[in-house]
Amino acid sequence: MNNLYYIDVKLIMDITIIRKCIKVYKFKCLKLKGYSVLQISIPLKHINRILRNLKRGFHPSVKKLLLYTEKGLNIMKNKAMLGLMLFIIMFLVPFISMGAKIPDKTKTSPSSPKSSQNIESQKAEKNKESKKVENNTEKKPQNTADKKAENTSNKNLGFKILDTKSNKVITADDRSFLYGAIATEMSPTYNVEALKAQGVASYTYYSRLRSQQRAKPTPSLKGADFSADTQGWQIYVTKQQMQDRWGSNFNTYYSTLTKAVDSIYGQVLKSGDELADSTYYAISSGNTESSEDVWGGKLDYLVPVASPGDIYSSGYQTSATFPVDKFKTCALKINSKIKFSGDASTWIKNITRTSSGTVKTMQICGTTVTGNDVRSAFGLRSANFTVSYSNGNFEFTVKGYGHGVGMSQVGAQYMAQQGSNYKQILSWYYPKTTLTNM
Predict the structure, then answer these.
(1) Is the pLDDT of residue 285 over 70?
(2) Rounded to whole angstroms, what are the CA distances from 354 to 285, 378, 383?
(3) 104: pLDDT strictly greater than 70
(4) pLDDT score at 34
(5) Which of 88, 145, 397, 426 is the most exposed place for a label (fewest CB within 10 A)?
């Protein structure tokens, strides 16, 4: 006898697993009162075998796969509805109690709602403990524009940036830098939670560079913390540059940035006591890469994680074609000693890859080169590629855009669209880091 089983789609982080569920195991994708679930009708004795084959693609925070019978699914939905009702009640009670007319001499009963005076005193005490600045009308889970962060930022000199076009050092206070850093890395039309995640990642990364340079300056930077082509919208731009580019959309876009900056100002990612090397890039191949595989330095927070939303990006897969002569020219940029001989179809051999698919090494006419060198020499979007030869042409098929280590910007946007907040996005792409105030 067959039983109906359900898997919550939100627990599956690898899109290929969802496709396998549907195509191979004949799951049906259903929408049940807001829940996206996969349904299968199968005898109980077969379900464990299927789960063993699929388990690698489920969210790692799930200790035990949540399978539901039809009755169990209803229980799950009822619990969710009960939780929503409790949340609404908890949200309304303070407003009701604050609005109630309680005589001044009446003592508050131990079992009655707290008086509005008590509520205000508790709010004041809470504000005193957390040192939050009450400038924002919207309540946030963690407002980082507190007095401590503000004092810290006032003590430093902001960021010093060597503009590569003018060859002059420009300065920006920390808050202005956040605006400019987010604007250069993400479209202001992105979900605000993705913008927040980008802001924290950028601020952490360049704060780390700032600390390193001020401890051990590089003479060529002329006292700056790092260099950037600000006129080319690299790393940082001014408010005026945003106005010039965005035109009539400036007020809307800048307001969105302000909402993001107000929420994250002063927040950084740390690994232990050190600022994290919070690298990021445009699009992953569907899984991120480890720093050890790509650059050789092992960091326990720059490790492969699934990023399934990237495959829906319009720029996820690209191709590049090179005639034999042009292929030779590019290959010789990597190593001028490469000797081309024999049939061109035999020139490329022994490709090795990371667990996420990026090319680590390959041989061109017997000479070993790295995937990153090939990417650079041939102008590819990433080092996650395949290459084929036919009719006198080499064709590269490339997945993703960027080095693949750390946070995928398209992946962050996808997670935000699915309901994740910036803290969840950051903890997903930078596991084992801590979000804290600077």
Answers:
(1) yes
(2) 12, 20, 10
(3) no
(4) 47
(5) 88
Structure tokens at 169: 């050092």
Task: Please give the structure tokens belonging to residue 143.
Answer: 């407002």
Indicate whether this model's pTM tops 0.70. Answer: no
C-beta separation of 114 from 99 below 8 A: no
CATH 3.30.70 fits 3-76, yes or no: yes
- CA nearest 362: which of 328, 386, 380, 381? 386
**Residue 193 contacts residue 258 (beta carbons within 8 Å):** no
Torsion of CA 102, 103, 106, 112, to 10 degrees: -10
Query: Using CA of residue 316, residue 322, residue 327, residue 330, what is the dihedral sign?
Result: negative
Q: Name the packing angle between helices 192-215 and 409-417 (round to 10°).
A: 140
Q: CB 436: neighbour CB atoms within 10 A?
A: 12
**Lookup: tokens for 352:** 């090795």
Residue reference for tokens 């050789």: 296
Q: Which two tokens stand for residue 91?
A: 């949200």
| pLDDT at position 166 over 70 | yes
Closest CA to 300 of 205, 430, 411, 201: 430
Can you give the residue ranges of every domain in the chain? 3-76, 147-298+405-437, 317-399
